[in-house]
Amino acid sequence: MARLTESAAPPSLIVTPAADPTTGDATAASFDRLSSLLERFRVRAHLFHSGPLCGVTHFAAAPGRGFLHVLRRGEMVVTHQPHAGPPERLEVCEPSLLFYPRPLEHYFHNAPAEGSDFTCAALDFEGGASHPLARALPSIVVLPLAAVDGLQQSLDLLFAETDRLRCGHRVLADRLFEVVLLQLLRWLLDHPQQAQMPPGLLTGLADPQLARALTALHDAPAEHWSLAQMAATAGMSRSAFAARFKAAVGETPADYLAHWRLTLAQAHLRTGRSLKSIAGELGYANPSALSRVFAQKLGMPVRAWLAAQDLRP
I need a surface site. Which of 19, 54, 55, 303 has the fewest CB within 10 A? Predict the structure, then answer.
């Protein structure tokens, strides 16, 4: 169980195991809501620690870098800088996952006699701050291992690789950490009430009807999507769809589509592609139209954005 020494304010998610961990949302969508996102915007895990931690351990923030910690046994205190977002002090009293999807400095405090044991990975989010899932998640997720049905099998494989040195163990451990991350994301999608996520992409994907429209937008950004087409994909009226979308996702369907297209544009530009080569596949009539929207939404022209990314047009 996680305990706070002061009131927690969003954006943070600290889950207690009060609810039945095997009970998901009865209305959860029955189709794949994550694969297209994670195929377009990958997350890479890199094992960097396995074993006890004693004293104070500092984890620095770096652009595009997150962390996934597994507290295997023991207890600890986690601290964050004042006004950083999550609680300044958090006590973790049982085996848990601690997930930092965005750069956030944090400290683990462990007394040598406690025998706390960890397996930790750094996470590199493709696109950094523009990664759709990194943007949508709370600054920290703390989840008891017992709350995630089926997680133990993946952890058993992960611990088997990290507990002894074998050929390829680091590569395999990295991939197993990515499996654990995917299971965590599934849990968040399947338990929207228990997770109490803030409005955003994940809360939209947790809604079975909105998820149909969102996955369609993700898979076919070049379509000339109208509000009526989106609503029909969700099986809803236009007014009901627009209202529920805004409440769940935090922006209008049109704004979300524009931001999704620009997120894809940024990803393509990072690989060296030109506006001319990507405008059509993102639903724009010509490069000038994409360039105008880019400048309006991001506050700078493409050339300035490329320079800020240390890229060349």
Answer: 55
